Amino acid sequence: MGLLPERSLPPEAATNEPDEIPGDVAQRVLIWRRFKRNKLAVFGALLLCGLVLISVFSEFLSPSTPYAYDAERTHAPPQRLHFVDTDDGFELGMYVYDYRVERDEETYANTYEVDESAKVPVGLFVQGQAYRMWGLFPMDRHLIGAKDPDTEVYFLGADRNGRDMASRIIHGTRVSMSIGLAGVALSFVLGVVLGGLSGYFGGRTDNYVQRVIEFLMSIPTIPLWMGLSAAVPRDWGAIQTYFAITVILSLIGWTDLARVVRGRFLSLRQEDFVTAARLDGCRTGRVIGRHMLPSFTSHIIASLTLAVPFMILAETSLSFLGLGLQQPVVSWGVLLQEAQNIHSISGAPWVLLPGVAVTVAVLVLNFVGDGIRDAADPYK
Amino acid sequence: MRQYIARRVLYMVPTLFAISLVAFLIIQLPPGNFLTSYIAQLSAQGQGVDGAQVRALEERYGLNDPVVVQYWRWISGILTSGDFGQSFEHRREVSDLIWDRIGLTLALAVSTLVLSWLIAFPIGVYSAVRQYSVGDYLVTFVGFVGLATPNFMLALLFAWVSFRYFGQSVGGIVSAEYADAAWNIGKLFDVVSNLWIPVLIIGTAGTAALIRVLRANLLDELRKPYVTTARAKGLPEWRLILKYPVRMSLSPFISTIGWILPTLVGGEVMVSIVLSLETTGPLLVSALQSQDMYLAGSFILVLGALTVIGTLLSDLLLAWWDPRIRHQHVERA
């Protein structure tokens, strides 16, 4: 490869190279080409990038902060964003209609009506609620929001304390996505180490590890998770609970990955190139790291991508039950706690929106994971 | 074959022992016990707690004994007399509380399993035989969404729709008018009519997964030369497909009982909490929250044991169905 630099062109340029030698194209170039052909996976990858961007820049992207509340705006319905003003002539510009609020004197519940006479102008890069970007830099600019810094807009409605749902869902993206990634990173270590040991050494080691895996898989996951997270002390801080839940999720989630890794090791152990490496005097660590692992990295990546949605779903379920993350941490599951009773759902269906976010994230990760798995399969 | 069964049953013993250990350790993990949280609750309400009474209670339930002693007392009670201990919160025998609910959980799980088979089989076969047709794309898409939506979300959505558009609030398996009635045909119909919705909700993810597995397997089989041979010999198409490739791709269908059962039990727990069904779920959560240790531990133990038995049954069924698996095990043994 090093002798023929003209063949290591960027993948776009190399796609339709007619005179390339099949065996001479790098494996990752082939994988990338196959991945690109899968439209659904590419679409998923783009959306996934969007989700990652949202979790990185949540403070800036949200119209408000997740904790700013307004007692006058409890369960306020979503406001539609209008782009064209046709009231007097034709005018471009973003605005939403204000509400007419009426308070029921008996129940103190607010009822809202759209007030078409009052417009709230909306702009980009506006001043609004003050926040600290990444907890470090004090800022007050928001990507989108009401031009008047003292008014709030609710694109996705407000919750029972009059907090902006859009901002809360955006901040929840950061927590839910990162708990998925962190949990998968932990299960990755456990799965690769234990699955690798099991598959490489075989025999008794294999038998022990397999028994443990079978045992973990035979316990109904949700009750086990519930039991373990109920054991997390209530007086722990937000960060501690977050890590405890991550550890709990990955303690059970590593088994699938370990099975994949073990199966790969078992089949690779018989290959000639592994025997050759061993006969050359390579130590175990080198045989595994240099010769065996590279031949199934892509499979591991695919399994990891497919494991993230499981973690996200698990976190959501636990937090929904009140056993996972706790307020004031904002994750999709914590947000869904508000949707637990039929009265808040029937009065304010938009409290279910965090669930839509969960579904989208899980779908996207599944598309990407499936795409990588298919692309990495050389026999297809 | 007999040897294989005996060996599998023998393997179950250490697994069950480990499950009982884990179940007991989980309920010991939280700091404090039911009494401390009970006392905290009482003093939060401004009620004084009598120290002598606390000590008497600790003495009675043996809460100060070493964990091993407590475990031994618990497990030996279960094994010798089916006594699961006392529920602190409900002040009743645990065994009185759980059997009804476990029965309902089991009924839900089994009917969900059967229903997801009934749905997944024709759809899976169809979408493999008509690969890339409109129907296939539709099924694949719906399946993906079904896999991606948490069960409890579906339950919430359903609760909202039925409340909003039908003015009905959901919940409960037995309708009010049959609550105290003895079992009769009317009550049975009533239960079945209330049951099918939770069954459908719990089954979505499993059904979607089954369809995908069946479709992938059947696609692999359909490309094999023996299918072409059979077709060349003039076998009618539907008979050909049903008789050979479908049969070959059914074994994962059976082996799914093993891994689908833990998922079903888990999903059932979540959905029951949302729809407030009288199954294990809501009781388990409240027991875990109030540290009602014997109740929570017994639930985890019984659910785990049932899952292990289900897995065993599915493995035996698979060995009976698929001669390749049967012989592989016999050779190894």
Helix-strand layout with pairing:
The complex is a heterodimer of chains A (380) and B (333).
Chain A: H1 11-14, H2 27-37, H3 39-56, H4 58-61, E1 82-85, E2 91-103, E3 110-133, E4 137-146, H5 165-201, H6 203-218, H7 221-230, H8 238-269, H9 272-279, H10 284-292, H11 297-321, H12 332-336, H13 342-347, H14 353-376
Antiparallel strand pairs in A: 1-2, 2-3, 3-4
Helix pairs in contact in A: 2-14, 3-5, 3-14, 5-6, 5-8, 5-11, 5-14, 6-8, 7-8, 8-11, 9-10, 11-14
Chain B: H1 2-28, H2 34-44, H3 51-61, H4 67-81, E1 86-87, E2 92-93, H5 94-129, H6 134-148, H7 151-166, H8 185-222, H9 225-232, H10 237-243, H11 245-248, H12 251-275, H13 280-289, H14 293-321, H15 323-332
Antiparallel strand pairs in B: 1-2
Helix pairs in contact in B: 1-14, 5-6, 5-8, 5-12, 5-14, 6-8, 7-8, 7-12, 8-12, 12-13, 12-14, 13-14, 14-15
Explain how this protein is built.
The complex is a heterodimer of chains A (380) and B (333). In chain A, strand 1 (82-85) and strand 2 (91-103) form a beta hairpin. Chain A has helices spanning 11-14, 27-37, 39-56, 58-61, 165-201, 203-218, 221-230, 238-269, 272-279, 284-292, 297-321, 332-336, 342-347, 353-376, and strands spanning 82-85, 91-103, 110-133, 137-146. Chain A has two domains: 76-157, no CATH class; 169-375, MetI-like (MetI-like fold, Orthogonal Bundle), CATH 1.10.3720.10. Mean pLDDT of chain A is 78; it is low at 1-16. In chain A, strands 1-2-3-4 form a four-stranded antiparallel β-sheet. By secondary structure, chain A is an alpha+beta fold. The longest helix of chain B has 38 residues, at 185-222. By secondary structure, chain B is mostly helical. Chain B is globular. Chains A and B meet through helix 6, helix 7, helix 11, helix 13 and helix 14 of A and helix 1, helix 6, helix 7, helix 12 and helix 13 of B.
